[in-house]
């Protein structure tokens, strides 16, 4: 078993109304960042966990996302990083 | 008839539900602690409103995994009635007792106001005391009430008559602002396929005493009483 650091991004599913993202985009436009086309606000989770290898850490994280960390109805997740500590 | 009202850390409408059952309906109610694996012989389970677990992660997500929910889900699978109000609706969706999810209000504001609902289905065990198409007034108080599901699920809910309450315009609510949260297809409350689990954002338990306005929520509890006692 080794200790891994896993980072997960959870974002609202594309196409679903994201009023929070829209409010942030509007505020950026107010600051003069006219180039911003859209913003989506999600969550970034960092886990430390024990697994036999990085594939095992990734598989375990995927299951955690499907069962709790992301809502399968409205959110997508992406395992952004798996690194040995 | 015995109502079991689950208290999660952060529930704040459990007492309102208790008073609605005991004072307005004249039936027995018990509080069920979220850590207990015991429904104490309840005929009906109420998942009350509030902010269970501070709405951490997503509203209702952590409460859906509370110990008592194992028994609540078993109760629902046996056909036992479950009423999820507000945060209880969010919990029921997260526990997959109901399809869909409740997202942040489109306005990003917490909405606390009496609103008008249309009863879309008066043929459920929760709504037989209403007339189909009847307009009723109930309070809402939520920040995450925007019901969302994929188109296929929405079509199925509508086709099967599982949309029970919808936000509706009336004399007091303009055509463009009657939906308080931007929910898809103006959905305010749904039942599951078997008809024994109802989730709704408005609060019927806060509208059972004429002292506090129109007691339009009482018929929901009376409907349940009639069906479960029968």
Mean pLDDT of chain A: 95
CATH superfamily of chain B: Class I glutamine amidotransferase (GATase) domain
State the fourth-level CATH superfamily of chain A: Phosphoribosylformylglycinamidine synthase subunit PurS
Helix/strand/pairing class of chain B, anyone? alpha/beta
CATH top level of chain B is Alpha Beta
Approximately how much beta-strand content do the residues of chain A carry?
A: 35-45%
Mind telling me the C-alpha Rg of chain A? 16 Å
Largest sheet of chain B: 9 strands, mixed
Mean pLDDT of chain B: 95
Unreliable residue stretches of chain B: none
Shape of chain A: elongated
Based on CA atoms alone, the radius of gyration of chain B comes out at 16 Å
Strand order of the largest sheet of chain B: 2-1-3-4-11-10-9-6-7
Set down the secondary structure blueprint.
The complex is a heterodimer of chains A (85) and B (230).
Chain A: E1 2-12, H1 19-30, E2 43-51, H2 54-69, E3 75-84
Chain B: E1 2-7, H1 14-25, E2 28-33, E3 44-47, H2 67-77, E4 82-85, H3 87-94, E5 101-103, E6 111-119, E7 135-142, E8 146-148, H4 151-159, E9 163-167, E10 187-191, E11 197-200, H5 218-229
Parallel strand pairs in B: 1-2, 1-3, 3-4, 4-11
Antiparallel strand pairs in B: 5-8, 6-7, 6-9, 9-10, 10-11
Q: Which features characterize this protein?
A:
heterodimer, A: 85 residues, alpha+beta, Mth169, Chain: A, three-stranded antiparallel beta sheet, 3 strands, 33% helix, B: 230 residues, alpha/beta, Rossmann fold, nine-stranded mixed beta sheet, two-stranded antiparallel sheet
